[in-house]
Design a protein that fits this description.
Structural class: mainly alpha
Strand order of the largest sheet: 1-2
Helix content: over 70%
Oligomer: single chain
CATH architecture: Orthogonal Bundle
Strand content: under 5%
Largest sheet: 2 strands, antiparallel
Distance between the termini: 32 Å
Shape: globular
CATH superfamily: MetI-like
CATH class: Mainly Alpha
Radius of gyration: 23 Å
Order of helices and strands: HEEHHHHHHHHHHH
Length: 289
């Protein structure tokens, strides 16, 4: 017998929808409106259609910043995902030390982004920084403010230190949800450590790893504060990512029309990357199933 559906639960969701509409949809529509206009002042505007979009896509500085952004996101994901899984597998599943380990692991996630940039700015300084002096003591002339490669190495290390804990905590939550019987069956079948990970743990970690990758992909693609504090986008423009270029355009130059078009393209790029990753994972899961 079919039970009548009770839709009163939507009344509880309605305030959330209204907040999201006010804080996300309305500002987005405002930006879209600005992106098709040339704004001279508050009362003087000229409709230009898609001119700002075409200009942005032809701008070599935008394309360079986009390539740097894609490279940065790919590097941090390639490091943080396997490293987070390794850390999660090394954490004991039970015992009195588990809680303490998880708390210590979560400490980097509690540090504000601007403080993270300041910490690594001091830590990597070649004159007084512990890391900078250590590397220079090995005979390597390390200076992240003058060498683009050194700046990139410092940025990658900073992001890995800050966000690997998120992947590790998510992976640990997925590992603890695996029944002990699965491990017992694998041991009885003579499976080694790699086979246990490949056939027992990894398939059951897919859901949490998708969440981890999506979170890190979105956050790394929108990174701003840490590289701004650490390198200021330099040396030169070697660490100027999309968010910094957008800020300089909107705030520094006050080009609201081009900045709005840039923002829309930026949003669509993040949305497209996340959609491509999610659909590819779902498709691969369907083929395995």
């Amino acid at each position: 017998m079919n039970r009548p559906q009770n839709n009163r639960a939507w009344l509880g969701v309605l305030p959330v929808l209204l907040i999201v509409a006010f804080s996300a949809v309305i500002p987005l529509m405002t930006v879209v409106n600005y992106s098709v206009q040339d704004i001279f002042d508050v009362n003087t505007r000229l409709f230009v259609g898609f001119d700002w979009y075409r200009e942005t896509l032809r701008d070599p500085r935008f394309l360079d910043a986009l390539l740097r952004q894609l490279g940065f996101s790919a590097l941090v994901l390639a490091i943080e995902l396997p490293l987070g899984i390794l850390v999660a597998r090394a954490i004991p599943r039970e015992g009195r030390w588990v809680g303490l380990i998880l708390v210590l692991l979560a400490i980097p996630l509690l540090i504000p982004w601007n403080v993270v940039g300041t910490i690594w700015q001091l830590f990597a300084r070649p004159d007084i920084g512990l890391f900078g002096q250590l590397v220079n003591g090995l005979g390597i002339e390390f200076n992240y403010t003058a060498e683009p490669l050194h700046a990139w190495v410092t940025l990658i290390m900073m992001d890995v230190w800050h966000w690997t804990s998120l992947v590790a905590l998510l992976a640990f939550s997925g590992l603890t949800a695996i029944p002990a019987a699965c491990y017992q069956a694998a041991v009885m079948d003579g499976a080694g450590s790699w086979q246990v990970f490949r056939h027992v743990e990894l398939p059951r970690l897919t859901a949490v790893l998708v969440i981890a990758v999506l979170l890190r992909l979105m956050d790394s693609f929108m990174i701003y504060t840490e590289p701004f504090v650490l390198t200021g986008g330099g040396p030169g423009n070697s660490t100027t990512f999309l968010s910094q270029y957008l800020t300089s355009m909107a705030v520094g130059q006050f080009d609201l029309g081009p900045a709005a078009a840039f923002s829309v393209l930026y949003f669509l790029a993040v949305l497209l990357l996340c959609w491509l990753f999610y659909t590819s994972v779902i498709a691969s899961d369907g083929e395995r199933g």
